[in-house]
User: What shape does this take?
Amino acid sequence: MAKTYSATDIQVLEGLDAVRMRPGMYIGSTGSRGLHHLIWEIVDNAIDEASNGYATEIAVTLKKDGSCEVTDNGRGIPVDIHPQLGVSGVEVVYTQLHAGGKFNNKNYAYSGGLHGVGASVVNALSEWVTVDVFRDYSHYFIRFESYEDRKTGKIVSGHAVAPLEKVGNTRKRGTQVCFKPDPRVFEDTRFNGDTVRRRVRELAYLNRGVRFVFMDEREKDEARRRREYCYEGGLADFVRYLNTDKNTLTEPITFEGRRDGTLLRVAIQYTDSYTENIYSFVNNVPTGEGGTHETGFKAAVTKAFNDYARRVGLLKEKDNNLSGEDFREGMTAVVYAGVQKPQFEGQTKGRLGNTEVRPIVEAICLEQLSMYLDDLKNQEVAQRIVEKAVKAARVREAARKARDVARQKNQLEAAPLVGKLSSCTGRNWRENELFIVEGDSAGGSAKQGRDRRFQAILPLRGKPLNAEKKRIDQVLANEEFRSIITALGTGIGEDFDISHLKYNRVIILSDADQDGAHIRAILLTFFFRYMRELVTDGHVYIGMPPLYCAKKGAEHIYCFDDKELARATKKLGRGYTVQRYKGLGEMNPEQLWETTMNPNGRKMVQVTIEDLAEAERRVTVLMGDKVEPRREYIQEYANFNHVDDFEPVREGE
Ligand code: 28G
Assistant: This one.
């Protein structure tokens, strides 16, 4: 490196007040997602230092006092004094909002590769921040604080308590940042250990060879307090991990390329399952909604395999090309694109919009995949994949026929099917709610207790079948699923069309026991597999009926767990009685309305998918064929069926 950097290189722009005023503009929300975004802003800077080749280790620690500490062993943020501003480079990075950086266009998401940008946003939204820099055998320290101005009552955010000072000598190199999110900004300032750990692990897969350490000092269980993640195989290790519980047909196929400033890395591994799992990322950001990089990748896969199939005679001149879906059946792939000026679009900013990226990705993939397929030593694998696709095409054709039959049948039998449904009178889908209720007796209570203007009830009799193990034609043959599909109006699978959705909220109401949990898991699996947008667009909820009712005289308190019950009985004092609801069916219509259905006061959780890859793994492990991993998994994540795992929302949020 010929060029040496100093604090002068840091562009200087507006102040931090703007961030305090409108946090959502900078971090998306002040809920759990925004809170965790603070960590990723800081970690992002450490990753930049690693991908520039200067750092090899990054540690993230959740501290007992609610703060988060991030460390890297890079060069350390520059400490020299900025000639115009007269403060250290560290102070510039942490107090000046860099308008030229990540947040100038409508994207709230980070772009990567822009050192230090975002650190000031974290400072603006924290109670305090400390930065330790280890550089040139010296240890430097600075602390920033946010406080209420005595005169104006306004919050002054992110002020350096004193200038950067040298506090000692050291042989270490790197940066250490610790920050405490400000409770005046965030609804809840507690970090979720699992959320952070999983994302750290994901970053370790995406940044091959960088050692990531996750520590949660709040954790009592010693084994969970410290985890290390470092993958020399990068994306290949990632797909292997995603497929741990599936039967794989190939070793991971990996390749990478660079063109016009765009970097592409891909890993593909086939399994014997029927599902397609493509996880894409742009600059370390998951793009759950896909985008131009994913489109380019898919187009190239289809073309490369079809061309190959013709070259080796697996497809004859008279045969039609196989469809893209046929080649993606059983495919697990991770597609990573490094894009210079990414444009993130869509509901959750999870889709890449840059049109120039598609042809670049397509060209790289086509070239690389064709090369792989033509290599003599890969012939066996290549043929296996094409043969699988040929089979998939045949099955697809058969399923299409079955579906046509089912559709006709559906029309014929539409009347008896919706007969189970007690529909609502209102015609505005945005207002309407569908309760899917376990069991006829609870269904009866729900019917009587509901507000029929906007609440519809669909009782489920038996257990619907486990959708994970079935193909679409078998799902369509199941009566419970057919009544759900008919009620929602959207169709499923390829035919799914969210614009036909008849209810804004689909609320699963099942008992708080093993059976109820199982039914809930089956329904979620079904929605996830065949109506994914229903989940990703936030239409699916889980109703939370209370477990107890504590009574004394005319007063009664509903309780959702043992802690609440203890509080309630203490409040009521001597002479209380407790009713424990073993199932929804034990509640009378009024009670069910009051506790679970009335939008004013009911508790429910929205099912969100923050992490598609993890959701996919859970669905596979819990519902798939392999028994052993499932047992282990249930032991590790015993709370999959517990609502804690989803982001709770209260009405009106
Ligand atoms: C521990 C938590 C998060 C970081 C560095 C290293 C440099 C740096 C960071 O420079 C100024 C602006 C744009 C280049 C760069 C050190 C060059 C030479 C750095 C971190 C200079 C910021 N020496 N390590 N920023 N840039 N780690 N970890 O934040 O032009 S931020």
User: Anything to note?
Assistant: The CA atoms of residues 76 and 587 lie 62 Å apart. The mean pLDDT is 86.
